[in-house]
Amino acid sequence: MKMPQTFALISLAIAVTVAASAQTGNTKAAEALRKADREWMAAYASKDADKAASFVAADGAIYAPNAPAAQGDAAVKKMAADMFKLPDVKLSWTPTLVEAAKSGDLGFTSGTYEFSFKDPSGKTIDDKGKYVTVWKKQADGSWKVVRDIFNSDLPSQSAQ
């Protein structure tokens, strides 16, 4: 992951947090975000790459650990499709914080995730961690992911 991208995402998440905390948040927008987040997870559970990618804005990006950013429709669809090819893949997440700016056009969800699949030897690989997703309200009223980043709570393999 490139440092400028990481810095930009962290800066955006902090700015959204500060903006949401400094003003009275928008409860209606926050509920719409929570609903969009649940629907996005359902799309991943269905293992439909097109549907999963449809929740990401055309210029949105997903920053997965140990991989280049998946930016834009094609890259996000490929990332999802590649993940769905993993044997017995399962992904779920739980938002623990959902906030929207008072303006109601920008917000974020953050929480925990669980991810598992079977490696080529048949061994189950389990991961759990945390995430931050920045959402932007679109002209049609829908919410789309503009940035998503996640990382594991487990120690790195090199630390073991």
Annotation keywords:
160 residues; alpha+beta; Nuclear Transport Factor 2, Chain: A; 6-stranded mixed sheet; 4 helices; 6 strands; globular
Description:
This protein is an alpha+beta fold and 160 residues long. It has one domain (3-152): Roll (Nuclear Transport Factor 2, Chain: A). The protein contains four helices and six strands. It has helices spanning 3-22, 27-45, 49-53, 73-84, and strands at 56-63, 70-71, 90-100, 106-118, 124-137, 143-152. It has a six-stranded mixed β-sheet, with helices on both faces. The mean pLDDT is 88.
> How many individual β-strands?
6
Q: Which percent range describes the beta-strand content?
A: 35-45%
H/E series: HHHEEHEEEE
Number of helices: 4
Alpha-beta content class: alpha+beta
Oligomer: single chain
Question: Residue ranges: pLDDT <50 for 5 or more in a row?
Answer: none
Q: How would you describe the shape? A: globular
Tell me the strand order in the biggest sheet: 2-1-6-5-4-3
Give the name of the CATH architecture. Roll
- The first-to-last residue Cα distance is 22 Å
Number of domains: 1
CATH fold annotation: Nuclear Transport Factor 2, Chain: A
Q: Averaging pLDDT over every residue, what do you get?
A: 88
Biggest sheet layout: 6 strands, mixed
Q: What is the level 1 CATH name?
A: Alpha Beta
Radius of gyration: 16 Å
